[in-house]
From TrEMBL:
GO terms for cellular component: plasma membrane. Coiled coil: none annotated. It comes from Pseudoponticoccus marisrubri. Keywords: Acyltransferase, Cell membrane, Lipid biosynthesis, Lipid metabolism, Membrane, Phospholipid biosynthesis, Phospholipid metabolism, Transferase, Transmembrane, Transmembrane helix. This is Glycerol-3-phosphate acyltransferase. The keyword Transmembrane applies. It is a multi-pass membrane protein. Pathway: Lipid metabolism; phospholipid metabolism. Its EC number is 2.3.1.275. It is found in: Cell membrane. It catalyses: an acyl phosphate + sn-glycerol 3-phosphate = a 1-acyl-sn-glycero-3-phosphate + phosphate. GO terms for molecular function: acyl-phosphate glycerol-3-phosphate acyltransferase activity. It comes from the Bacteria. Its main location: membrane.
Amino acid sequence: MFDTPALAILIWSVLGYLVGSVPFGIVITRTLGLGDLRKVGSGNIGATNVLRTGHKGAAAATLLLDGAKGAAAVLLARWLGPEGAAQWAGLAAFVGHCYPAWLRFKGGKGVATYLGVVLALAWPVGLLCCATWAFAVAVTRISSVGALTAAASTIIWMFFMGRFDLMVIGTLLTAVIYLRHKDNLARLRAGTEPRIGRTPPPPPEA
């Protein structure tokens, strides 16, 4: 990652940020006439808040596209860039989703994009992170616990899968996920974080 030429880091970071900062949740809800997503529920631009509009298809599309843009940034950089460019592009796409300049740096919580980045960087690690999220949600019935547990497991899975080259980016992704979930952490400590009902769990807050 740190052996990448400086110019390549700059180019792929900018491109990754631009790809990651596309607010698919807002684009989809506006296209479908569902209103301004930033005025719905938590105001978040991710799939969970899109689900609060009552349109499951829009939520599913947002989840897939938010994950796909993280994966796309990684795969394009791996295909066209030098060694290490994929990690910089993936990290920048993730940051772009969480802090998009055109939305005054008020983006999503990053879980879907994080999963897309990890799946593209190392799909076995990504699948294990997805499985960790599903297991944590099934046990606790709290979506944010699933997201936080999956993020925390990233380094563990990278270590056991021998992907030591990805542990720096894994640490950075996890740190930002926890930062973006600070309100959820406060509610978890207070015991007020809402639980999922008997219906299927919502997509991760993206």
